Amino acid sequence: MLKVFIVEDETVIREGFRDKIPWEQYGFQLVGDAGDGEVALPLIRKIRPDVLITDIKMPFMDGLSLSEIVKEEFPKTKIIIISGYDDFEYARQAIRAGVDQYLLKPITRQTLRGVLVELREKIEQETEQQDYQDQYQDEMQEFEQFALRRFFEKILDGKLSVKEIYEEAARLSLPLTAASYNLLLFSVYEASESSSLERREWFTRKQEEVFHYFLRHPQYILFRLDVNCYGVLIKSETALMEDLADRALDHIKRVCGPEEERIRWYVAVGTPVERLSSLPQCYERVNHCFAYRFIMPALHILSETTLAGFLADQEEKNIGQVDFMQMDPDIIRDFLSRGTKKEIHGFVESYLQNIQNALKSRMFRDYVILNIRFAVVAFLESIGAKQAEYMGRIEQAVQAIHREDREISLYFVEMLGTAMDQREEINSYQGGKMLKKALEYIDANFDSETLSLNQAAESIGASANYLSAVFSQGMQKTFVEYVTEKRIEKAKKLLRHTDKTSGEIAREVGYKDARYFGFVFKKLQGCSPREYRGEGRK
């Protein structure tokens, strides 16, 4: 039931409202009353009624002053002013205060009943519309994430001017203005490639627990980098930046730290900058730190500070001091599986940092070159690449090297680039096959009200997270957008070519709630289903 609160200084009238009106019959619950606005205000702040009925003239705080405060603090509250003054000036002030109804005393039960029923219907319609808007926004959240990813890709690549950044941020309703900015990158993925539905659901819940913290606080903007990696833009006053970064790190550590047997997690935090135009440089530095997750898998929080000791230890190592565990070919293969092209230079630098001094030995350089080659070839074979498609480029890279330590890094970059090109071609082919299966499944089931991303992913043997990334990349629209478009297109045909009701059509295209169907239809088409049908007949 809707809550109603009464403020009236005349005791007889207040008690009459309280005791003689059958509130529950009208769909209301009387939750309190007071003799003036000053006494009423703290009670209203605590109870938050749906409807406030107040006299206009009272001691200490009058009804107009009370109405102005309540409307400012609780804009959804409906206000009924009751007055013994038939004066336009009072009515004008009431309208300015945001009052919904202005009633003159004496008020009959019938008059009050009519006003209450009208307000109840208005509140219910507004609540329904808000529920539909919330549901629609939840469904469109995947699209917003896709748009954010594209936006931040352009920012971090330095492809947008400051003016363009603010223009695109405005289109995405992103408040970016701040005194200081920083970037945090993190990767969270399962320790083992389990296909168990229960295991995937558990991991998804853990991911959402990580995400929820950043979505709750406006100082953070969460965006996706690739399937397993995410970025967070931290924006705040300069004095608060360090504390916000520490809180973000602590949150990820708290959620993921106790689950290290089941989850692999890494976080890199950058150095704050004062300008949006400096974000590409900030990204370059933090991404360099992030690449060390492959070299130092036991170190979960990566920054210039946490890596400083490790880097200092590596500078003067000769061959006898080299930690060959950090040259394990599995490190290279893991990078090729999970890394990105943007991380290649950072990974190469971090990998060679361990052996920089030892590279003065010609024999050791030859060993490093062979180690790189064998690791790259083993990775390509593991993903089903054909030798004829990669051996030519590998041989070109080998022939170009002059066996100097500077040339080794160029060779390493070229080898990794070759392998990632092959990986992307294979992933594109496999992703294309997966996308085709997903589209076939959607086409066959889009009119089912139970269709979901998780259901589609389960049907083709993929995780919802991976299917979401593949779908948006391949279709340039999200899963929900595609399904919604299919449903609305079929609905338009049924509206124009059949006499079925909107409710029947809603159910036929996958909406169990006909009113929500009408809401989505109008949102996308700019008119209601009935108006669309009428235009077609004209």
Structure, briefly:
The chain is built from 22 helices and ten strands. With 538 residues, the protein is an alpha/beta fold.
Question: What does this molecule look like?
Answer:
- With 538 residues, the chain is α/β, with parallel strands linked by helices.
- It folds into 4 domains: 2-129, 3-Layer(aba) Sandwich (Rossmann fold), CATH 3.40.50.2300; 178-303, Reverse transcriptase/Diguanylate cyclase domain (Alpha-Beta Plaits, 2-Layer Sandwich); 315-445, no CATH class; 446-537, Arc Repressor Mutant, subunit A (Orthogonal Bundle), CATH 1.10.10.60.
- It is 61% helix and 11% strand.
- It has 22 helices and 10 strands.
- The strands form 2 sheets. It has a 5-stranded parallel β-sheet, sandwiched between helices.
- α20 crosses α21 (514-525).
- The longest helix is centred in the N-terminal third of the chain and has 48 residues, at 109-156.
- It is elongated and about 105 Å long.
- The chain starts with a strand and ends with a helix.
- The mean pLDDT is 82.
Task: Give Rg in angstroms.
Answer: 32 Å
| Assembly form of the protein | single chain
The secondary-structure class comes to: alpha/beta
Number of strands: 10
Helix count, DSSP H or I runs of 4 or more residues: 22
Q: Estimate nothing, just give the exact number of structural domains.
A: 4
Q: Overall pLDDT, averaged? A: 82
What is the spatial order of strands in the main beta sheet?
A: 2-1-3-4-5
- Main sheet attributes: strand count, strand direction, barrel closure: 5 strands, parallel
Strand content: 5-15%
